[in-house]
Design brief:
The structure is a single chain. The protein is an alpha/beta fold. About 45% of the residues lie in helices and about 15% in strands. β4 (about 50) and β5 (about 55-60) form a beta hairpin.
Amino acid sequence: MGRAKPIMIQGTMSNAGKSLLAAGLCRVLSQDGLRVAPFKSQNMALNSGVTADGLEMGRAQIMQAEACGIAPDVRMNPILLKPESDHRSQLIVAGKAQGAFAARDYFARKKALMPQILEAFDSLAEENDVIVIEGAGSPVEINLAENDIVNMGLARAVSSPVLLAGDIDPGGVFAQLYGTVALLAPEDRTLLRGLVVNKFRGDVEILRPGLTMLEDLTGKPVVGVVPYGRFDIDDEDSQRLLRLFNTPEGQAYLKNELHLDDELIEKLTWLGISGIANVLCCIKMAKYYEFTERDVVGTVLTDSAVMYGSRIQELNDRYGAYNPHEAAMDHALHMLGLKLDNMQELTYADRKRVHNLKYYTWVEQQGKTVEELNALWYDTEGTWDTVHAQAKDLDDLINAFNEATGLLKDL
């Protein structure tokens, strides 16, 4: 296998959509049968994840690795900066913390990190057909250009062609793209192969005259107009872990790589999709409140994996047979890499808003009245207290059932 060919996505600014465009390229190229890996030399984000070997990297590259169908690897993001204030960040190199640095101190030393960046890139390039590189911010922060290690400085170092994306959603995309091209150094302009208009809404025919004028002004083709989309990429935690816990390949990973004992592996098969979600919520809560090994969190396993045999087969049909790489990726992404997004400490009004969501299942589905729904909120004595008072009777019924069936005699 020869050395991988690179392609780089840069943006006119932060939030131009570089991460998703790069992920899309990763997915399409991997689906075409190529061996693809993502790469971002330096990422500044608090939103990090942990690889299967316990190393830290940017969440965007973890997501892009998933788009490639491979396990995340810190070589894909050798430098991670985690801001601690407006002027100070924690520096992570090759997945390991190196301490916190003031912006000026890091700026003075970042060029010295280039050999480690290129070592990581070269290593990935020897193992793949294509490396999809993501830039950061804008490539024409002209005060930073001399020591650039993430945009055109990296593109020159690895001889990568570049696509430049502009965000049309807030307006001003023609100025964004034209101004960026105009400020590029001549040698960097030769690496720029095309322009992308991202997050477009509306009729592209109305946009087309402007695209033609932009091509004439910049001398670069507009290679694509990408429609605006809403993406919820991290919504598969429970279903991914369902495969990890309930396939022979996943269980082999749990035993051989994580060294779980057979009893615990067997108990993990008790968890259905909702039960797994409950466990993951506990993990997120423990992270949020900074719990330690001295804290205990309890939850309810609201369903069993026995209910989801057909779903596991559907996932196998959709993604292909499960394998050790998928197992490592699912463990890293959907358990170790859980984020603290979608977390909120609820006020009284917030809790009542969540309660009101029951209108659909309580009133529309079950035919209850709004008064009965409101009683669950206001009439504690007549609702929840009566439920709790049934606990002893329910226990007696359960014990009688277990005795009559002999269910517990062999346990």
